[in-house]
Write the structure tokens for this entry.
Amino acid sequence: MDGFSHATLTAMLALVGAVIIIAALLSGLIERSGLPQVAAFLALGAVLGPGGLNLFDVRLGSPLLQIVATLSLVLVLFTDAVSLNLKEVRRHLNLALLVLGPGTLLSALLIAYAAWRLLDLPFAAAAILGAALASTDPVLLRGVLKGEFLPAPVRQALRLESGLNDAVLLPVVLIGMVFLGDRSLAVSDWGSFGLSLFLLGPGVGMAVGFLAVSALVMMRNRFGVRRDYESIYSLGVVFAAYAGAEAVHGSGFLAAFAAGMTIAALDVELCDCFLEYGETTAEMTLLFTFILFGTSLIWSGFTVLDGRILVFAALTILIRPIAFLSSLAGFRLAWKDRLMIAWFGPRGLSSLLLILLPVFAGLPGGDRLFSVTCAVVLLSIVLHGGSLMWLGKGARPSRAPQAVIEPIPPAPSFRGIGRATWSGSDLDRGDAADSRDRSAGGHP
């Protein structure tokens, strides 16, 4: 890689180490304070960037940014899909369809129309911008879903949206990129594009997910698989799905989502660490990406600010409540619940990652689309992050709970993604083993 040196490697390892250490040390403090985690890491990026210590200055053309952004989007799509409880989705199918159909797609359409009218963008560019800004941020939304102030229907709707909306919006971005780059495609070319987008990519992802889980179950039943290796198995699956789809000119991003969805649908017995390690790795990658954006890139949103951009940013924030309140009008939900679902659609890293796809492809106007997205994301972090802090104040206890030290129970048997069940016989065997140790004179 051009420009690679020992000093560059050392600096990058230092940055990765800083992300992990700071994220671990501040995790409890940030959660108790209600401060958006992304704001803390954007601030860290600003400190490390040209406006602070000048240790890093990441630009749009940086290969490092392209690699990290691609990894982040792949991991987000996979973990969103693999963490879905499909029985829960089927049980709340009407709510899921309303949230993803009229809610998400109507938001994208209205934002695209506003961009077309206010910013004088070509329709394809406006559609890409609308789809990117209709996507909700997984890191900010995770903080919302953990909040004790959320009623169960609100949490359910937001969880369904966070797991599925990127898969709905990503094809809009990819199709818009085709129109923005080359408007003279023949019918046969469109047929090949549709085949690669909707069949090859998801097909490869489904095949990789099925074969990977089948091989894991077979080897574990015959020879056993160490828990620490099973925990990183999810990363191998998602990377293989992405690479396999790209090798046959399909969409690696949709393949990653399809692989996760296939694993969730198979409902096989998997170690709980399989999901937890993938989610933790995805979150660390996202936070690392936020630091890279925070060095200088995201602040480019201030450079394009004018009256039209400010109006567009405000409309983008307001369009989601309008679209979702209209979509959920006929659904049996309390008015307060509908209002909370409509409001909590924070824009963040998912929007930035989606809008980077035309930038990395070198399409015309990509830099401007990115700057406009940055302006909206910064406004969203302030408004949605601030409202999360305000609503969470009443739910947080006035003092920290006392730590209670308890014996560590045996590992749970994991049936399906997201559901752990404890076996009473396992606990009985553990108690019996302790009794034998004590009777034999053993000491802890």
